Amino acid sequence: METRIDRLGSVREDKIRQLKELIAESNYIVFLGGAGVSTESGIPDFRSGSGIYNSESGTKYRPIDIIAHDFFMENTEVFYDFYKRKLIYPDAKPNKAHKALVRLEKQGKLKAIITQNIDNLHQEAGSKCTIELHGSVFRNYCMDCGKKFSTEYVVAQDGVPHCDKCGGIVRPDIVLYEENLEHENVDAAIKAVKKCDLLIIAGTSLTVYPAATFAQFLKHDRIVIINKSSTYMDLKALLTIHDNVGDVLDQVVPKRVSKPKTTASKKKTSTKKTTSSKKTAASKTGSKTATSKSKTSESKPKKKANG
Description:
This protein is α/β, with parallel strands linked by helices. The chain has helices at 12-25, 63-66, 69-74, 76-86, 96-106, 121-125, 151-156, 183-195, 245-252, 262-299, and strands spanning 29-33, 110-115, 130-132, 135-142, 148-149, 170-174, 198-202, 223-226, 239-241.
């Protein structure tokens, strides 16, 4: 019978051990990550004391107002001034969290990464099962003709980037406030959550919807929270760890998976059996041939002597 883990009394080492056990027992893990997954790569989060929403925008507008659809349409130049300074980090590299998730995926246990981040670091690390809820700054397109552009193109343009084909405004393929998420991505995320036997929620305050509600689709309580601050799911989760996401995941996901030792011995045994069976077959064939010859010689009529 599974019981809830005492989140208040357990020391960190015990929680790490418990998380290792949960991962070892699971075969369909889903990871739901937020901005806290990428902070160790030098990308600030949004809602912490030093996050983007609490920093100076460099304009007379609040950061949270700038990254909205209506603001983008009405104040495109101001949007891009803020966007290029605060939301694009082309030199950021995958950290320990991203790399640990790649290892977990290669082991066949991690089936989906649902990310609210727009930095493309999961893919850069090597993850193949990523569902991007909010898009990516590494994809851009012309709003008029649809031509696609790289981030380098956008950054290189002074002010508002324009299409080199038709002159239309180029915008990042990200979901702004007041815009709807792609239904295909939301459906894929919910489908994965419904099938999982362990849901790891990390680096998110769980205040952004619909991601904050995904846990409601679970039919069990096998939820792990890894976040520096508290979330509304802390008391509902099976295990809660208030720590850096990268440090925790790097400890609980093995860097190397040892191959079964029986493989080599099985091959040798198989070879021996094959050789033995061949010899046996050969001896049987030989004895059958000899028997056949003797029978043939016996059945031949004897020649009568001349006389």
